Amino acid sequence: MNIAELTVKSLRAHGGEAWPHYRDALIAACRKAPPPFGTRVYGEIYRDAATDPCWMALSLITNAEGEGEGSRHLWDLAACTPDARVAAQVRAHAIDESRHSRAYVAMLNLAFPGVVDDEHHAQLTTLSPGYTQRSPLEPHEGSPYASPITLDDLIQMNIAEIRTLVHHLLQRPVLLGYCAPERRRRLARLLDALRLDEIGHIAYTAALIDEFARSGEAGVVKRLMQERMSDFNAITNQDLGRNVFESV
Ligand SMILES: [Fe+2]
Ligand SMILES: [Fe+2]
């Protein structure tokens, strides 16, 4: 899987052609530091692990946890970002991830009904902060994420969202395979919505990164994209050693 190509193609529906600086920086970064999550071996390791239904169910819970945690971090960033336009986008992103956390619990119930009892189900739903448009936009006390969003944050978020999209693509056929035919349509609808949201997250961060590049920081964008891609690759390789496939 060519990650830069997959990303550029996915962004077409969002007007991605308008972000040439972002595209060039991504292509250069993938060339200099090829992401392990784009390799054939990575997909094989995923599919191999996913043959175990317990692993698959647990991985959905890990995803619910990751989405919930990511949502809280984004909320803090949004609350501390003075640019109202950018803050609104990050806040909307936090609300999406909060919803995704619940969606993973719903997908667990659809693919593996009865695997969690009511009490545990109630616990799992608390993994999501449950943000809505009406939630007060305030940072959590002492949060390391309580600061205005930076170009570096956007680049790291962008790369993490691309990896999430790849995980989503790997997960989809396996999960549908586990699901009973009468529940498969509902599961597919949830998966479709999730994929569109994740592409939306890649898109708005890409657009903001491109804005930075156009305002005179094209060199910084290129350098940081490569640096963060290479940092992220090291994290991905560590995760792979533990059979962890995170999503945000
Ligand atoms: Fe996301
Ligand atoms: Fe998500």
Task: Describe the SSE topology.
Layout: H1 3-11, H2 20-32, H3 40-49, H4 53-80, H5 84-111, H6 118-125, H7 151-178, H8 181-241
Helix pairs in contact: 1-2, 2-8, 4-5, 5-8, 7-8
The structure holds fe (ii) ion (2 copies).
Count of individual beta strands: 0
- The low-confidence runs, each spanning 5 or more residues with pLDDT under 50, are none
Shape: globular
Multimeric state: single chain
Task: Give helix % range.
Answer: over 70%
Rg, Cα atoms, Å: 18 Å
Q: What string, H for helix and E for strand, traces the elements in order?
A: HHHHHHHH
Decide which structural class fits the backbone. mainly alpha
Beta-strand fraction estimate: under 5%
Largest sheet: none
What binds here, in terms of ligands, is: fe (ii) ion
Would you kindly provide a written description of the structure presented here, covering whatever features stand out?
The longest helix has 61 residues. It is globular and about 55 Å long. α1 packs antiparallel against α2, α4 runs antiparallel to α5 and α5 packs across α8. The protein is 75% helix and 0% strand. The model has no long low-confidence stretch (mean pLDDT 95). The chain has a single domain, classed as Up-down Bundle (Ferritin), CATH 1.20.1260. With 248 residues, it is mainly alpha-helical. The chain binds fe (ii) ion (FE2) (2 copies).
